Fold these 2 entries.
Entry 1:
Amino acid sequence: MDKDLTSDIMISKDTTLKPLPPTVRLVMFLILIPALCSAIEVNCSEPTQPALLEALTPIFNMSAIRPVVNMTTRTNVSTFFTLYGILGVDEKSQLLITYLWLDYWWKNELVFWDPNQCGTDKISLPRDKFWVPDIVINEFMDENTAPPVPYVYLYSNGMVHDAQPVKVVSSCNLDIYTFPFDIQNCTFTFNSYIHLAMDIMIFLGKSAENITKKSKNVMTTMGEWELLDITSHKDKYGHDDGQYIDELSFHIRVRRRATLYVVNLLIPSCFLITVDLFSFLLPPQTVDRSSFKMTLILGYTVFLLIMNDLLPITGNTIPLINVFFSLCLALMVTSLLETIFITNLLSGSADFSPLPRWVRVFVLQFLGCLVCLPQKTKEPKGSDIKFSTAMAQRKADEGPPGEMMLVAEGKAVQELRSLGRDLQAIRLQVEQQLCGSKSSKEWIQCCLLKVKPSKVLFIFISVLMYASCSSIMLNCSQPDPPSLLDALRPVFTLSSIRPVMNMSTPTNVSIDFILFGILGVDEKAQLLTTYIWQKLEWRNDFIGWDPDQCGSSRITIPRKLLWVPDVVINEFMEKNSAPFVPYSYVYSDGLVQDEQPVKVVSSCRLDIYTFPFDVQNCSLSFNSYLHRMAAMQIFPTIPVEEILKFSQEVMATMGEWELIGLSVKKLQLPASDGEPYEELRFFVTVRRRATLYVVNLLIPSCFLITVDLLSFLLPPKSIDRSLFKMTLILGYTVFLLIMNDLLPITGETIPLMNVFLSLCLGMMVASLLETILITNLLCGSAHYPPIPRWVRLFVLHFLGRLVGLPQKPRDLEDTVFQNPAAQDIKVSFLVAEDNQAPGPKGPLDEDKALQELRSLGKDLQALHNQLKKQTSGSQSSEEWIQ
Ligand SMILES: *[C@@H]1O[C@H](CO)[C@@H](O)[C@H](O)[C@H]1NC(C)=O
Ligand SMILES: *[C@@H]1O[C@H](CO)[C@@H](O)[C@H](O)[C@H]1NC(C)=O
Ligand SMILES: *[C@@H]1O[C@H](CO)[C@@H](O)[C@H](O)[C@H]1NC(C)=O
Ligand SMILES: *[C@@H]1O[C@H](CO)[C@@H](O)[C@H](O)[C@H]1NC(C)=O
Ligand SMILES: *[C@@H]1O[C@H](CO)[C@@H](O)[C@H](O)[C@H]1NC(C)=O
Ligand SMILES: *[C@@H]1O[C@H](CO)[C@@H](O)[C@H](O)[C@H]1NC(C)=O
Ligand SMILES: *[C@@H]1O[C@H](CO)[C@@H](O)[C@H](O)[C@H]1NC(C)=O
Ligand SMILES: *[C@@H]1O[C@H](CO)[C@@H](O)[C@H](O)[C@H]1NC(C)=O
Ligand SMILES: *[C@@H]1O[C@H](CO)[C@@H](O)[C@H](O)[C@H]1NC(C)=O
Ligand SMILES: *[C@@H]1O[C@H](CO)[C@@H](O)[C@H](O)[C@H]1NC(C)=O
């Protein structure tokens, strides 16, 4: 049927063209039929595969062109896929890694056969013998590492079925706000990389529900991610001039299985928080609560370390879990500070001045009522007064010296008096201590209160105004693609030379690109990884045809058949692992448009001085690797502002880096042989989104520094402050560890952040050393010789006044204490005298009483001396400490 129709048309065409005698006409028809009638009916000599292959051989010569009879016919590619596995998500670089079975169907209009004649209705043949559409997934950023499948099926009606597995590493804007309970909505956009909609259209081959169902059936892995659904979406463009790239997008929703994160991160951190809260039950007097809490915080920083490894740094949102962790840390730090404060009060408030009246009234009575603090039963104030009056009375009783008393009696009374004095002194001392502890209790109560628990529409610049100069005119025998291909064949043989007629004419190459993604920066290796859509344009002087004669003004042919300029990016350090796109557009005036995606791993001098608030300025220098200026010149196609605008529009991911600027400079540099070469240098300016670094690094380290500073409030006597500080330093090294992973080792500049962290560490170490010194003084200074006079003068009086140190009220008996040895001698002399003079002076009874009293007095005096010695020791130690 088909054949009859076409031959009919051919005949009519022939008649209109040239009226010829019927016999000649018939001969011509027979000769011309393969070329004229483009859909070649393949005739098999016998119904076997080899015969079919032989019959198909002419078709293979036309694999370079899109298999259509009329260039205005669109090739409709229907596509679907099965999601076989979700391999993972890389939050840091915002990538989704999946494994797909892709299916494409399209029609090859150049071939059909009779299934009965050839014995089969389909045959599998190597893919490279056919034209295949250059369908790519736009978000695909990496090499396809799935095993290659080299065959396609060809059906008798010309349909081609191409199926292949693809490991897709696609960029996806990951929303990690609700991590680990997040659902990600990732997009796969299928489109032809270079063909416009007037050449290739994409259709859905299977309903999205069926794709979802099939995918859920075949998916065998039970990994971190679970497929929810797949929906499809096709943009409808109002105008249908075909000057756009047709695309079909699928939205894939996947959900994270959060159990492991809950078990590994959330539950332990809840445990830690619970422990922290319950640690208030620890009696602050007996247990070192602050060291305990510090260790808890150390445990917590380890969690922050894990989070830092897991989560991406995106500018817009901070994940809730990070907020949670930071809040937990803040809570722990405040509770630690509170503990330090309380411990300080507990041990230090005895030396404080009594609680001011207004504080006592306000806090204890007013706030205390609010939180139902049990009212402290006040000791009746009278007792103090009573006591002092009693003292006074007693003094009055003792007061009058006994003139009227006897000498013997006088001795006993003297003894008694000295005894009384000793007792009084002891009592006073004890009372002082008691009094202090009472005021301290009030302070503590006062404080306990507070703390109860597109893809862009491809800009089609029709640069068809080029004057068709001296270039070769190609003549098509027929206005159809196969004859155009035939006409182009001589050009393909010239693909190894630069396509100019006169070698002294330079080839002008125009360059532009769209920055589709910033995949990351490797500070250690000083690399910037970007993904660009690169576009080159140049003129091929060997090509030129009449669009009317050949039926089309443009054609896509494989790049490898043409000469392509050796434009490289100088900073490029690795092989291009972007998906391979084989075709280029060729226009009837000789203009060649070559586009391909490039994953650029470029070296860049990274300036990390202001990390994490750094802005990097990296260059991408396009130049010809070999050709000098006389042979090749390089120009930008469109203004750099437009490149910036388009790039910011299409950039889908909100990763760590944000594109903020682009500028271009054209340079002429001398090559080694003296001839200059041209270079187009683009400066890409990117800024780091610092929020997460601030939350994860800066704020916690500020917390730790605060803790370190306030830890001086800890009483050095009762608590092992050095242990506490050591734990703090240990926690700090965790931060240094994170920084070490992040930052490069460059010789010249040290990042400010590192300086900050090092300063903090230095401060902590200094304070630890100071603590060690103080602890040493505290334990040992009582045995030290008394502080030298000049030190005391200089430090206590001079420096003390400078820093407002409270002057210690000197004891009245200071002079006596300054020479305890003399006192001892006096005492022992007295005792010896007493021993030497036993009682022959008085009556026997009185003597006995006197002796008793004396021995008692001796005991008391010894006690008193002991006490004095201790006090003096502690005073000298206090002086040392001060
Ligand atoms: C194939 O056979 C048909 C008739 O069976 C004939 O009309 C046609 O010309 C043949 N085609 C080729 C390429 O030989
Ligand atoms: C295919 O093209 C090659 C040259 O490219 C030619 O030698 C060969 O004869 C052609 N085959 C057919 C069947 O046209
Ligand atoms: C191709 O198709 C267009 C419109 O469909 C038609 O105008 C043109 O004549 C056709 N060309 C050939 C060579 O058949
Ligand atoms: C391709 O799809 C377009 C739009 O649906 C349709 O008009 C055209 O006929 C189709 N072409 C073929 C060859 O099926
Ligand atoms: C996924 O995102 C696309 C746009 O990015 C949106 O059109 C679609 O509705 C989203 N799907 C779901 C289920 O939210
Ligand atoms: C989906 O699958 C069902 C049966 O599996 C089939 O009947 C239906 O036609 C399919 N729908 C599409 C749009 O392919
Ligand atoms: C194409 O045809 C023109 C005349 O129509 C002729 O001058 C020219 O040489 C031909 N070119 C080729 C490559 O045959
Ligand atoms: C090539 O061009 C140069 C200058 O444009 C000219 O001097 C020279 O004659 C040309 N050579 C040929 C073969 O046309
Ligand atoms: C290439 O560019 C130079 C400088 O702009 C211009 O003089 C020359 O004509 C251009 N060559 C072509 C083939 O366009
Ligand atoms: C980037 O650096 C180049 C030279 O090193 C300079 O010309 C350009 O202005 C810089 N760009 C920005 C945004 O600083």
Entry 2:
Amino acid sequence: MITVTKTFFPPIEEYKAYVDAIWENKWLTNNGDLTQELARKLKSHLDANHLILMTNGTLPIQIALNAFADEGEVITTPFSYVATTSSIVWEKCTPVFVDIHPDYLTIDETQIEQAITSRTTAILVTHVYGNPCDIDAIDVIAKKHNLKVIYDAAHCFGVTYKGKPIFNYGDVSVCSFHATKLFHTGEGGALFCQDEATYHQMLYRHKFGHDGPLRFHGIGINAKISELQSAMGLSVLPYIDDIIADRKRVCDLYDNLLDFKKLRRLKIRAHTEWNYSYYPIIFNSESDLLKTEKLLNANDIMPRRYFYPILSSLDYVNNTNNVSVSEDIAPRILCLPLYYGLENEDVKRISELVSNSIG
Ligand SMILES: *Cc1c(COP(=O)(O)O)cnc(C)c1O
């Protein structure tokens, strides 16, 4: 069976060597040696200003909202993974949905200002599929209205925008290191921020507020990464350039083989060095998509409908804004299989099946 993604497994001896080090140290969590080593290496690899490793990619979103959003209204996108919206509601804030751009599929920045009210405290938007939002426009709006910007950059490992690492934009950016993501620690994630004050604010919040064993620096939760997770990250990191290069091979092949007369691909924003994290295709109709999905499934190929249904339709939110572009596009988007080691032959077969089904 060919699935939409496949977790990269580093050579087991390399993982075991890190596990041996854990056994020697007898230290499993609380900012251990391997966690410090991974943080150091990632900071340098990504050219990040500040980063805090965490146990998944959702808690850092919640921690940033907890620090910034003050149970207010949060401007957000309906086209993302559910964690973007559920985090807002979990933190007792109100999601205010703004529609997406039909080509880039990120928030339509021209519609943000009209959604801002006196209760708005933050903007939480997703660089969906690793495609950057219009960061400059969002920056101007946020400064004008004194709002914090949190980027859900879960898909963005390795992406740069205008020559700068994408995580170095916004007050906070968050990446996921889940097993299905491009770089992974099994479960894991990281919070990135630009200044020392925000770094400390987020650091204490992710470890119960502990400032040493006896003092507390405000309220906190437990989002610490463990040494076992960091061991996985350290074993995967040496392969990350190969992983991205191999995914580029697959994407280039799809670009060449698919027939784009009845399909459309994602438009990547200018000045972006992309990471080939997903291969979404947009059909002319949902029925074309369903027909194609059925044919692929019959051939043991399992694409995924990332991201459907849209988040403004979740039963625990109340949306009154117009999100017609999202409603129109989300039912027509399918992500094709894309992972390190996906064979050329299989990419050819998948492309042929897609063409046959809508041809
Ligand atoms: C994967 C993902 C998350 C959540 O990350 P976890 O590490 O699974 O908690 C958040 N937002 C988006 C857009 C994602 O794709």
